[in-house]
Every structure is written in C-alpha cells, then in structure tokens.
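About this split. The held-out portion is used to measure sequence recovery: a designer receives only the structure tokens and must propose an amino acid at every position. Recovery is the fraction of positions where the proposal matches the reference. Here is one held-out target exactly as it appears in the evaluation file.
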C-alpha cells in the first residue's frame, strides 16, 4: 500500500502504524508519530490502522537551543 511518509510517497506492506515503523527501519527508535495530522502516542501505534494514501509523519527529538 502507498502512504506518504514525511511527505514522500512510500510503499509498505504493513497495515498498522507500529508494524510500518518497524518495516521502515525505525524499530525501537524514540520518535513522535502522527497520521493524517493527528498525533499518535507510542501506546496507540499497534492499534492504529493505516489506509492507502494516509499521511504519516515521523519526527525524532532534537537537542539544542
């Protein structure tokens, strides 16, 4: 299925956000996620279904000031 990962078209086999993150190489990385502009906490990723055309944002925390 094709989703948009951080604005880029990306094909994934997974149908849940947690599985898609693993498939895309994020594994156990500490990241923030959103699907279609709605924040998805880590505890809800396993139950968050993905559909064709969904917009997924993955953001890594940064340090600095």
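Reference sequence for scoring:
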């Amino acid at each position: 299925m094709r989703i948009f990962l951080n604005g880029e078209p990306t094909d994934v086999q997974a149908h849940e956000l947690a599985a898609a993150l693993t498939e895309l190489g994020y594994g156990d990385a500490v990241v923030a996620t959103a699907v279609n502009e709605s924040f998805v906490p880590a505890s809800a990723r396993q139950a968050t279904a993905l559909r064709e055309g969904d917009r997924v944002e993955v953001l890594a925390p940064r340090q600095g000031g």
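Annotator remark: The mean pLDDT is 95.
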